[in-house]
């Protein structure tokens, strides 16, 4: 192997290539595979039809999250189709010896929340799941990305997928973030600059002091949203913050194994002089609390700004008009003061304890606006327990909020948590596509602070006045 | 899952000149509850195709009988968003074998090839020429030749070549899939895993 400087991405990628096919993809080895009830059943069916098995069942982890109800999880799931998918996951996991954290299991939760919090996600690993926000795990210096069901079947049967190596992009954000500006805002800001296809074909490394100073949960939020600018994934070099987060988690390495792995993890950074296909740099001071106004995550602006006019944005005017029409908004409208009907805090983007702390810090001492329906959904049972232990639940209850049970919930509205047609939801999730949160729903993506401010005032509100 | 071989496809095309068509539009999440790969075509573009009373929306292209064919022509950044392979299944199940756009989202592109749909990426100019040809004559045919990696607008004779890596091309031409390939190198994978 040559001694030329390498990027973090190269180091992890190259060490996982089993075979390089000429004029084709790499046969790429996967260390960790997460599965859930929605994108795995057809893959298991494929195994059966071919008469093949699971090669390394200990490298796959199953959790139920996408279509699970967020109330009364102790009762049988009412929707027969969802219940069937959950039963299939349980049955398939048992059949092939795969660890399964189903509904009611104390470890259950959203796949991208439970992986890290239980020490399954580690630096230098390759991680895939049939869910595009698998990029979340890149926060640990892992190469992590979403795959399709055919690839789920590949990983089950051979622990490999066929992937051409993406190009490399580095995004630097330097400086000091302003008051009320969270990792979510940093990510929405970057996406608004790059558009939803600006990083297609690339794998991103985030660098600069903003990310160095971020907590692991913040880094997960940022990496989670990498897919929304088209990137296959995003990663951040592991450092002491990473190691401290992992140390002691249930499935994390222990003792001598820990020491050995730690020594390796410390080598996982981009060498000086390593080259990227593209490099972008942003200034932290330019970032405000963000909110989206359109039907893709790239359509975001600083909360104090007005909706841009068609000639200020990239892309076709027809597509832009269709999007604003769907939202019931107009060019040059101010976002502040727009009526909000629903508030959703949760999802693999902002469903961790720090997100609920941030939410509660604004809620405290206020009341939920009467006309607002709020869904407060922890990312996992572990997060739910923390919410209770830290007294956050009391703050929420006093203000008129109810805590629901963990799951993807209104992020994709496969269960009953659907925003009705025409209603506006300020949501801490990751996608504002037409109908994403229910047919006809209108989504405004934002941080937990912005969601909290909207929940108590009932309109889009700059959260900085409460901080 | 085996699929039909792809060699030369000659067909009229369905135009959808919208940018950033995401996979939530191609197949909304509430239709992802099946445990078999069946019937997804019925819900392709569900919420653009039907109103809330399940009545077809007349202004949507799939409900317009003048347009038909095995080729779907979409605007820039087709297939963005969710990794759901169900989107590719729905397109295939509806009867499309090829999607043409000036830009595809990564995961969708991979999923499409894996289920036997050929994604053809053309220049923005050529994409416009296709839309114009279909606007002039909705029955206007395109020819997609995978072996030669060439797409032609038959009414005008204009053509453009497109890229696809050699391995994937070989698979599509022969109806092979990656799982067959990976199964054939299982011992190599096992020894790789043992060394890790
Ligand atoms: S919370 Fe949303 S984005 Fe995250 S895993 Fe669930 S459905 Fe996917």
TrEMBL record, chain A:
Signal peptide: none annotated. [4Fe-4S] cluster binds at residues 348, 408, 411. Pathway: Amino-acid biosynthesis; L-leucine biosynthesis; L-leucine from 3-methyl-2-oxobutanoate: step 2/4. It is an enzyme of class 4 (lyase). It catalyses: (2R,3S)-3-isopropylmalate = (2S)-2-isopropylmalate. Binds 1 [4Fe-4S] cluster per subunit. One of its GO terms (biological process) is L-leucine biosynthetic process. Its EC number is 4.2.1.33. GO terms for molecular function: 3-isopropylmalate dehydratase activity; 4 iron, 4 sulfur cluster binding; metal ion binding. Keywords: 4Fe-4S, Amino-acid biosynthesis, Branched-chain amino acid biosynthesis, Iron, Iron-sulfur, Leucine biosynthesis, Lyase, Metal-binding. Residues 10-458 form the Aconitase/3-isopropylmalate dehydratase large subunit alpha/beta/alpha domain. Its cofactor is [4Fe-4S] cluster. Gene3D superfamilies: Aconitase, domain 3 (3.30.499.10). It comes from the Bacteria. Pfam families: Aconitase (PF00330). Heterodimer of LeuC and LeuD. Catalyzes the isomerization between 2-isopropylmalate and 3-isopropylmalate, via the formation of 2-isopropylmaleate. Belongs to the aconitase/IPM isomerase family. LeuC type 1 subfamily. This is 3-isopropylmalate dehydratase large subunit.
Automatic annotation (TrEMBL), chain B:
One of its GO terms (molecular function) is 3-isopropylmalate dehydratase activity. Its EC number is 4.2.1.33. Pathway: Amino-acid biosynthesis; L-leucine biosynthesis; L-leucine from 3-methyl-2-oxobutanoate: step 2/4. CDD domains: IPMI_Swivel. Belongs to the LeuD family. LeuD type 1 subfamily. Heterodimer of LeuC and LeuD. This is 3-isopropylmalate dehydratase small subunit. It comes from Sandaracinomonas limnophila. The lineage of its organism: Bacteria, Pseudomonadati, Bacteroidota, Cytophagia, Cytophagales. The gene is leuD.
